[in-house]
Amino acid sequence: MAYFIAKRLMQSVVVIFIVSLFTFLLAYLMPGDPVYAMLGGDITQEQYDMAYKEMNLDKPIYLRYVNWCADLIKGDFGKSYKYRMPVIDLIKTRLPVTMYLGGLSIIISTAVGILFGILAATKRGKILDTVITFLANLGAVMPLFWLAVLGMSLFAMHLKWLPSYGFTFPTEDFVKSVRQTILPVIALSVGAIASTTRQMRSSMLEVIQQDYIRTARAKGLKESRVISKHALKNALIPIVTLTGMSFRNVVSGSASIEIIFSIAGTGQLLVTSVLSKDVATTQACILIVAIVVSIANLIVDISYGYLDPRIRIQ
Questions:
Q1: What is the CATH number of the domain that holds 117?
Q2: How many CB atoms lie within 10 A of CB 19?
Q3: Closest alpha carbon to 269 in 255, 289, 249
Q4: pLDDT, tens digit, for every residue of 60-76?
Q5: What total of structural domains would you count in the chain?
Q6: Distance (Å, rounded) from C-alpha 165 to C-alpha 160?
Q7: What is the pTM for the complete model shown?
Q8: Is 55 a member of any domain?
Q9: What dihedral do alpha carbons 287, 292, 295, 301 form, nearest 10°?
């Protein structure tokens, strides 16, 4: 198992290295001069020369990349030209917000999706299966931003049950945090719940037709024990993959949710940085997202080895 984990860890390191290389080259793939792209054309020659040296553009590109990586290892992501502050300070305040919302969404969508998938599979062909399948198909085609706007219009604007903007951590004000979190988390979770439900239903239907499930039933075991003890673990293997993909989608999809609900998270920061051509902040956000997704994929791979010993043996 240790070799299996080490191998997957090395693969993650390689992926992060490749992403860091493309992220670094982002500044030089932008059209025009990188300095003018960030500061605009209305700058003096002195301001241009100063920014040119601050960005190390007077050095060879390979040396700039090495220095950039060295700064990253020390926790220095550069300075944001838009916010006039170190990028690491922006990340420290924004990333926990995105991770909190994304983590809640993954927990809720996985738990609810697995439960609905099991119910639909065990009640195949009945009314409950039809209702769950219909709702899952409906949730799968709903655009995330449309669902967020619809929820805001209904529950915030018309019914006035929930706030339409802002974010507060539970440690600051628990009640306010719950009220502000409901709409964004639901918007982030609906699509993932639908995907998990559909995948869990298909996986469970395939597993419960296996010979060992028939044998367990023939021994007189209760249906609930057959499902929980014998079928669930094998049916969860595809769900692990889907959960990892959902985590990536939640991290990337959080941008629209954070903009709609005026939440100061990493997604909103990334969009703002791209629009304002703040290269240092854009690079940091992309790299952070890549690292988070790589860690999620690593956890998924390790979970594979736990759920199916054949994978780690291979």
A1: 1.10.3720.10
A2: 17
A3: 255
A4: 778 888 888 888 888 88
A5: 1
A6: 12
A7: 0.79
A8: no
A9: -110
